[in-house]
Fold this protein.
Amino acid sequence: MNVNAPYVKPFQNDAVPLQEWLSHGKSWIESALGEALPAADQRPRILHEAMRYACLGGGKRLRGILAMTICQTLGAEARRALRPALALEAFHAYTLIHDDLPCMDDDDIRRGKPATHIQFGEANALLAGDALLTLACQWLAETHAPLPHPPAALVTELTTAGGSQGVIGGQVEDLAAETLPPDEEMLVYIHTEKTARLIACACRMGAISAGACASKVDLLGRYGLHLGLAFQMIDDLLDATADTRALGKPAGSDAKNQKLTTVRLWGLEKSRAEAERHTRMALDLLEQLECPAGRLQDLTRHLLMRDF
Amino acid sequence: MNVNAPYVKPFQNDAVPLQEWLSHGKSWIESALGEALPAADQRPRILHEAMRYACLGGGKRLRGILAMTICQTLGAEARRALRPALALEAFHAYTLIHDDLPCMDDDDIRRGKPATHIQFGEANALLAGDALLTLACQWLAETHAPLPHPPAALVTELTTAGGSQGVIGGQVEDLAAETLPPDEEMLVYIHTEKTARLIACACRMGAISAGACASKVDLLGRYGLHLGLAFQMIDDLLDATADTRALGKPAGSDAKNQKLTTVRLWGLEKSRAEAERHTRMALDLLEQLECPAGRLQDLTRHLLMRDF
């Protein structure tokens, strides 16, 4: 990894404006992912091309940036959370590939370009997803967590959050909810497991990478859950109100797929209010952090205002 | 785990006949898997039912038994490799679910019953596979390897063997080979990556669980590669010659799917001779182990003679 790359230092500088912070963080993660993923000319080429296609050249890198920002907020160097950040982004890319498959949400566009199965065929897309999940765990196994955490703590974090009682459980109920009447308990379950769990996991992994104590890791996990719920509510609002080009994925696809969303359950106004409520709860938790967290506060408020 | 269960002691007794050894090992793994997998009444139920359906009630448990037998051969208690054995079996079940999907090999029967996607639908089958892969990594992260290995060595083993340059790479080329002329180099690549790598991984994990030195781990990994190649060649022979009921999966499906197999490339006689050659090479490696390995030798010869 080139620690002198032009985006590394600005990302580590707490004084730069948030937009620059985000854009440098995104470049750093993008570049490190490009180096860490298997090269496209390695056998089997089509698989490695599909993995790189799905991982690179798009995405906000929110999960990776959160892990690195939290690590730095807690006084450790941001690059200590770089490897976890790459694993989070590879994991996130795997979930998007599988979610877009015809037997799941059947979406053809992702991050402004054809979905992986449109570009490489269903079998290669499915296997590229499998390979990214496997690679994420491999990267984390090579990254020993600092004390007081057990060495394999980062693998445990990702596999717990990403398993049958986390992200995958959320996706199962998300599909099941398409044929059921709207239900608030189910909506909260889906948003918590499918979206907020991985964002909370990113926050926990950032704290673990900084060597934070268990109570700080838990505090930041709770922060991440509220942030993730607010994030998903804004996502639902954008899907209902923005256009496809701005989103990079088909607008209105939730309604087309009869997805159970905040907008469908609560309408626009209450959805907005709920997103604001969870943002406030996330900010309240940051107050308890007992260290300057201005950058995290800015990031939290920014996500409520985003239009992409 | 109930270490007084009726199958535990016979499995640890080097004097019992091989068939008893295998059947007790199978019962031990089956029972421990049943305990370790999420209960079917935990949310989301359909996902946990699908995971249990795909993992339990069938299979030879060859990979798990190999890991435990090697651990015991090297002088450690077999149960030290139990957790890795469960992870190997969960991982293997995930590959079978995904391989059977319509966009892959499109097979409807597995282990003598309807494939997971026939029983639970494509989306739930795909997600059950994802969840089993995730769970396998989670179990291994909780199982610290003994010295001289790094604590997360078992996760590294499984994710390296199971990744894009291992099992998944083999599956990609296996699908690609269906539309290409038969080619020996490609056949060896597919058999090595798709089948032998995971069997070699099981052997390495058994050795690591016993705290063996790196050179013994490598020796047993090479043993596992030859054993795995012989195993796959016998599989190809059985697919071409046995009937569906004996196999527990559709006989002749290789020919139907235009699979690149040893039988298609070499015919029955040379395939048999190659399986015998790899079995001999596996046995030669066991000679170098410098400890009594009668049980492993019996197991190695048995796999050449199997008719299921």
